[in-house]
Structures are given as structure tokens and as C-alpha cells.
Model the fold of this input.
Amino acid sequence: MIFDLLKATKIGRRGRLTTGHGVIETPFFMPVGTAGAMKGITHKDLIDLGAQVLLSNTYHLHIQPGDDVVKNAGGLHKFISWDKPMLTDSGGFQVYSLRRNNKITDKGVRFNSHLNGESLFMGPEESITIQHNLGADIIMCFDECPPSTASRKDIEAAVDRTIRWAKECKELHERLSQRPTPNAPPLLFGIIQGGLELDLREKCAKALIDMDFDGYALGGLAVGESEEDMLRVVEAITPLLPENKPRYLMGVGVISQLRKCVSLGIDMFDCVLPMRIARHGTIIMSDGSQIRITKPEFQNDHSTIDPDSPSQFSRIHLKSYLSHLLRSNERLGETYAQMQNLGVTLKAMQELRGNIENT
Done:
């Protein structure tokens, strides 16, 4: 069994997800290393903060350096020297984020590279082939992620494509998994779409469950809808998913939302938010509060950034120093700020796992 559900409580599920590069304790949060790295944070830093798994992006790695380069290097783990589990997303979110210059058909999506404008095409075959070349432990089906403001007609069309593409992804994945490789074949997750339309979400979920994937993700949330709407979808759809399979809510990283969604039965999360707001001066403290470290009031605040921080840098350095670094656009400031926010987020998940065990 790849997923062992150890305990289910009112505050969440506690489990273990076994991959080709080790076991992941659930629930967990994945740092996002888009191109196989996080801005200014080393792999050792990630491990010291308690990261169990790293997420990288199929589209970006395909564009640069190229999935063929990564494959020839021995796969993504060897290419970036990371020996823990990795997940690659499908590239489907780029269909959403680059929607102003794409053309979606039933076969896939044609769009232009964000680097040089080159015309590119990605569909189920391309996405799964690229992800197998990259060699992640967990890979995702290619899906269409419509905006939360899309019409019901457009969302329904996206659901139908997502279901059709998921079938194609699984068929190709099973063929590619039969080839001899140095590592175990990756786990394949289906992605449930449907916007805020609960009946379309249910339709998509049931269709993917019938295909029997290794895990199931809720996609197309945290893309502009209210928290109330997001939680409404999670609460309605999560109970439909198999208890013996991991459940992944994509793109959510606010600690209060992580806790709420874990209580609704979610096991996995990822988000760039903690790191992104850090680079712009918003610091998440160990007590759950946030401060804007670049405000004038911190220029002469010579107290320690966060004495209880998981990050050694925040336990040593002063708020005034971090404020100076970020206001001076020093890259070191971004590193310290990101270490703080990521560390606090990972620690919150670690504490949540402990609370579930003790419930």
C-alpha cells in the first residue's frame, strides 16, 4: 500500500505516503522549487527546516533547461542533488496563468513561451512524457484549470476535457511505467476541476475515482475565489474521495487555511505564497501574527526577529537588520525572510501532525 492511513480525527487525518525516494508523513506542505530550486535557499536549509518533499514545475523545466537535459543527467533528483521525494505538477496551471495567449482544443493547449515567445504545444501525452523524463516520485495528470469567474458552460467544457485527458494520461503512464528504470515508477494523481460548481466537481471526482489513480487533487482553487467558497468546495468534495488514497489541495499555503482544510480531510498542500510575501517584506511570526518588516517602525527595532523560529537566522538576527536588508534590496534579506516564513509554515504542519496523533 502506497498510502497508510494511521488515524482519522476531527482535526484531520494522519498517514504515511510511500514513494520511490522515501516516506512522507502526512499531512504535509510542499515548498515550491519551480525550476528545481528555491530562490536563495539551499537544499540543506530546506531539510533543516523540515521539508519532506519538493515540488517542481513541468512547464518551466521543459522550457529550461529541457526535460531531455534532465533525463540525460539521470533524472531530476540527480540533476539537482535532492534525494528526498519530489512532485512535478502537470503544466496545466500554465494553461490558466498564460490564458491570454493560449488556444485550448480537445487535444491540448497551444501557447507561447514566456521566455522567448516560441510557439509551444502541451497535451496529455506531452505532459506525462515530460514528467516521466524528469523522474519525479509523484506526477500529475494534465488538466484544464478555468478561472473561478468563468461561465458554467466554460467550466463544464474544462471538466469534460480534464476527464478525457486524465484517461489519456493514465493509459500513457501505465505504458511508460513498464519500461525499466533505476527507480520505482512514479505515482500518478488525478486532478478534480469544476470551479465553484459542486455538481461539476462531483462529476469530475466520480469519473477520476472510477479510473483508480494513486491519489486525488483538488485543482482550480485559491485562484481568486473567497475563502468561504474554497472551503465550501473542499467540504463537499473531500468526503467523496477514497479514504485509502492521499488527498491534495493545490495552491493553498495560508496557515489558518491549512488547518481548516486538514480538518476537512486534506493530506497535502503546496503554495508559493509564504515565500512570495517574504520577499516583499511580510514576515509570518511563530505566534501566527504577521509584520511588515520594511515599515519605518522596524528600522530601529533591535529585538530578535523571532526567538522561537525554526530558522536559525531569525533566532540570531535583529528585526532592524532584516528591515535594512530588504529595504536595500539585498538578496540575503530575501533568504532570511523566506527561511522564516517557510520554517513557520512547515512547523505548523509538524505540530498539526503531532496534535492529530495525540487526539
In short: The CA atoms of residues 98 and 111 lie 7 Å apart. The first helix runs from residue 43 to 49.
